[in-house]
Amino acid sequence: MRFGLFVPQGWRHDLVDIAPADQWQTMLSVAELADAGPWESIWVYDHFHTVPVPSEQATHEAWTLMAGFAAATTRVRLGQMCTCMAYRNPMYLAKVAATVDAISGGRTEMGIGAGWYEHEWRAYGYGFPSAGTRIAMLDEGVQLMRAAWRDGVVSFAGEHYQVDGAICRPTPLQPAGIPLWIAGGGERKTLRIAAQYAAYTNFADSPDEFAAKSEILRGHCEAVGRDFGEIVRTTNLNTVCAPTEAEVEQRLDWIRDHYAAFVPIERAEKIRVAFSHMAGTPEQLVEKLRVWESVGMSYAIHYFAEAAYDRSGIELFAREVIPALAG
């Protein structure tokens, strides 16, 4: 199994009470911790407004962070979970990603999806197109980016995007272009796009859902003539790791209390429950991850709510969980 780590960037209210002048150093310190090993990759979210509710807490922009981390790290791969296609013209996005790939020495991943957070769409003036339109934009944008990275010059005449002799030089350092992570589990369209173009998929909140979505992806691969085994299937996991069960419960209580400053206590309690699914001692987490592994999940991206304040859970996970499952 392979492992990635989310870096706190504010989107999930995970930089609260850290002074703006100190937030970059806080994020960088988590990235440097991952870069020292054994994590394979670091990740941020591509969002502008916080969740579970919009607030005026900081949310740092994803691709700016990508460039910063590209320059400040040496080993880990750099991803976004996931870039919203409609937030940037895809030709411009291809250029940005190619530049980050150059800065990083060829360590960039492209997490990409159709987008869903209506509040920030409308607040930023993007409107909020129908799901079908957003998915069509995703499809066209992926085609355009792939062509830009492959050829360096691209003309494209789609319904949503048109470019005429647009130059993307230099192309990415990675010979096959930047790997595409098609995020989302839409069964009819998103997974079909993934079958056509993705090196990685990212979906599901439970092993049972993961298994079901995987079979749908397999069917789409058969329909388009793609080898299902070529696609690495991944998921994101809210994670709590502590040496004892009592300490696990204390960390879950901290998560509930942290979010209760922004949402009603009933909703904060539901967030606590959501984190409990991948909460435990190292031995318990290994067993939980083996269940995921049994349904074909081979790459887990872990989010630790307390990362900006306390690294001990991340360090314990890296020391005792990853070695039990890696390889």
Description:
This protein has 327 residues and is of the alpha/beta class. Helix content is 46%, strand content 16%. It has eleven helices and 13 strands. The strands form three sheets. A nine-stranded parallel β-sheet has the order 3-2-1-13-10-9-8-5-4. Helix 2 (62-72) packs parallel to helix 3 and helix 10 (282-294) packs across helix 11 (312-325). The radius of gyration is 19 Å and the shape is globular. The termini are close together. 44% of the residues are buried.
SSE blueprint:
Layout: E1 2-6, H1 20-35, E2 41-44, H2 62-72, E3 77-80, E4 83-84, H3 90-104, E5 110-113, H4 118-123, H5 131-151, E6 153-157, E7 162-167, E8 180-183, H6 190-197, E9 200-202, H7 207-224, E10 232-238, E11 240-241, H8 245-259, H9 265-276, E12 279-280, H10 282-294, E13 299-303, H11 312-325
Parallel strand pairs: 1-2, 1-13, 2-3, 4-5, 5-8, 8-9, 9-10, 10-13, 11-12
Antiparallel strand pairs: 6-7
Helix pairs in contact: 2-3, 3-5, 6-7, 8-9, 10-11
